Amino acid sequence: MPTPIDEAAGLERNAVDSLPAGALADKLAVARAEGRQLRVKLGIDPTAPDIHLGHAVVLGKLRELQDAGQRVVLIVGDFTARVGDPSGRSTLRPMLSAQEIDANAATFQEQALKTLDGDPERLEVRCNSEWLDMPMADLLRLVGTTTAAQLLERDDFARRWSANEPISMLELMYPLLQGYDSVAVRADVELGGTDQKFNLLLGRDIQRAYGQPEQAILTMPILVGTDGHQKMSKSLGNQIGVTDEPAEMYGKTMSIPDGAMAEYYRLLLHREPPADMRPRDAKRELARGIVAWLHSAAAAAAAEREFDRVHVQHKAPDTMPDARARAQADGTVHLPEAMSEAFGMSRSEARRLIDQGGVALDDVVLSRGEHDVDAGRVDGAVLKVGKRRFALLRVG
Description:
This protein is an alpha/beta fold. 45% of the residues lie in helices and 14% in strands. Strand 9 and strand 10 form a beta hairpin. It is globular, with a radius of gyration of 24 Å. 36% of the residues are buried.
């Protein structure tokens, strides 16, 4: 059996911070001496309906801890999502409705289980509304653990304070609420992205104020999106969702810049990119690996065949969804309307894509302003939007 120091060194692989120094090894030693599992916490707010590969970086580290015999406490932040995490933000996040939060939370656990082991001995799922919907006396005790000066030391708050930009009381409350999650579940270790470092450290202070041992923290790198520059985010449109269809997942992975490949290999496949391959072949292996991990090896092979058919042979996919197009009184089809129905985009976005030359009917690129097309030409035609979206149009 490895020593706690050796075990901690393995678990810290790819982490940016392991704080305080030596704390994870100490926690492992104490848990081993007491004959119990470590309680390893991750909290994610359901502010969007889908988990993407950026989340999977932290989830993958949690799976390593599960495989090492520890217990993950996954906190669905249904209460903190009402506040909105200000980390990395220059403005107040828009508040979500209770219905939006509930709908997002409903899919969260299912998607997280694509990475995590669902064994109840190794996974505990909690919602922080269980304890954060607290009496006023309890809230005042929590607020009393932290000073305004501590909170304003945070980089994003400090920048906004210096620029005389507003900071809401709700935003100041967020780190306190997240820290109290650690108290409620008696966390031994907490994980998060590097943008969560302040919140994770504050959780230690709050645990100490409540007389609990302070958690060790691990921060993981922030995965860049498919643009290769900005943090992966659904709002930026540069995400690869863990529930994307295999062909979509494969195609998006093939679109990442070569310079981002090594990071994707290390953080998602937990190995270095092959040194003896050309970049394009290495990217194919990366795409196959990601699809096989989240779907299956067979799905990865099929996705690669589909990619080659569409992007190498320049043919339409073997299978594609049918989309209904409505004929207008003058016998034409308004394509922005059909695109909106087929792909869930706005009509203004559809018009913009047509005008930019990004839309084709049966491989004929539509001209700028070609928004209304004869119904006879549309019926049975393959609509192609961008590089990866196809639909078979039926007029009716």
